[in-house]
Amino acid sequence: MTRNEKSIPVIIVGGGQAGLSMSWYLCHEKVEHIVFEASTACHSWDDERWDNFCLVTPNWQCALPGHPYTGKDPHGFMVKQEIIDYVKGFVDSFSPPLREHTPVTSITRHENGGYRVIANDEVWHARHVVIASGAYHDAVIPGYASAIDPSILQVHSQDYRNAAQLPEGSVLVVGSGQSGAQIVEDLFIEKRKVHLCVGSAPRVSRFYRGRDVVDWLADMHFYDLTVDNHPLRDGARDKTNHYVTGRNGGHDLDLRLFAREGVGLHGTLETIRDDVAHFLPDLSENLDDADKTNADIKHSIDAYIAREGISAPTEAPYAPVWTPEARNTPLDLKAAGITSIVWCIGFRPNYRWIDVPVFNGAGKPLWNRGVTNAPGFYFLGLPWLHTWGSGRFSGISRDAAWLASQITGHDVAVA
């Protein structure tokens, strides 16, 4: 270590809810550490969400360590500003050693053990490094997008704010995961004509047999399901989240209902060539598969209710309210009056700044409960880090406590 190099036992990269949860445990264990955040602690909630964004999980699942939800609506859904206030309240509750506006640009192994971390041109040495910067780094926009007529505005979901941001005219939304389905509803409420390219994302009902589906699944310990016990094993990490919404108290997002009310549904977008969108012939299949996933979840709840002898109201099976026509017709963007495209096809992780052998050939990190094969190097806050709940407010605390136990060498109780 050179004279200009600073040393500290633990460095946490990322000051969102995951990195802050890690810091909370280390503070309580009196482990010296620092949290580097490239922007601000709440920037992703403030800068990368649309105006009407709200949680799709009920407020009672907001359980950061030592900072449970204490509001008056545990079964409601926090809107954007409430989420920001909740996370800021968590920061204020324990004053973490947080360095905002301090991007980490390089991590390498140190010749004397541990890791060499460059942050804002400062050089640090740490025995332990926790990467809590998430997995949603580079917005995915296909290469052919550059050939689309520049008069058609293109934005990624992270840059969408509201309908007024887009020029007058119809909107093409590409991708039907959580963001795509909710943005379609946001535009539809504002009386915009919308076309949606429907992918393979599954759906789930908001309520079933008298309760929020999340409540049922929590009682059934679904969120405690570990990736090792999932039928898909590591493949679970590549699955798209179910689309549903917490808007206005929460309700289903039924794409068939959207179609019946005027939204144009199309299959998976294959390409856009000469300003004509071409789709795969999979619309019916994608809608049917999403409905089947929803039905399977309901069946599992039915079985649980019967097994436990729970008294709950019955509910009729879902009946499709709209069925697509068999033909697979391309969409001429100009003829359809489309003046903007919202890309909702996700993100790619970007860990190119990490020169530590903890990645597979595709550049994805490898871990077991966040612990990598590189001694003292960890990941936190990723979907399915250990359980289905790992990527939620409800599961971060347990994962952070586990990593804190790896750092301290003794069991750390989950707060």
What does this structure look like?
With 415 residues, the chain is of the alpha/beta class. The chain folds into two domains: 6-137 and 349-408, FAD/NAD(P)-binding domain (3-Layer(bba) Sandwich); 139-343, FAD/NAD(P)-binding domain (3-Layer(bba) Sandwich). Helices cover 24% and strands 20% of the residues. The protein contains eight helices and 24 strands. It has helices spanning 17-28, 43-47, 80-94, 178-189, 213-219, 255-260, 283-308, 393-408, and strands at residues 6-7, 10-13, 33-36, 63-64, 67-68, 98-99, 104-109, 115-119, 122-126, 128-131, 138-139, 153-156, 170-174, 194-197, 207-208, 211-212, 264-266, 269-273, 276-279, 331-332, 338-343, 347-348, 354-355, 377-379. The strands form seven sheets. The chain has a five-stranded mixed beta sheet with strand order 1-9-8-7-23, with no helix packed on it. Strands 6-3-2-10-24 form a five-stranded parallel beta sheet, covered by helices on one side. Strand 8 and strand 9 (122-126) form a beta hairpin. Helix 1 runs parallel beside helix 3 and helix 1 crosses helix 8. The chain is globular and about 65 Å long. The two termini are 36 Å apart. The relative contact order is 0.17. The model has no long low-confidence stretch (mean pLDDT 95). Keywords: Oxidoreductase. This is MSMEG_0569 family flavin-dependent oxidoreductase. It comes from Acetobacter suratthaniensis.
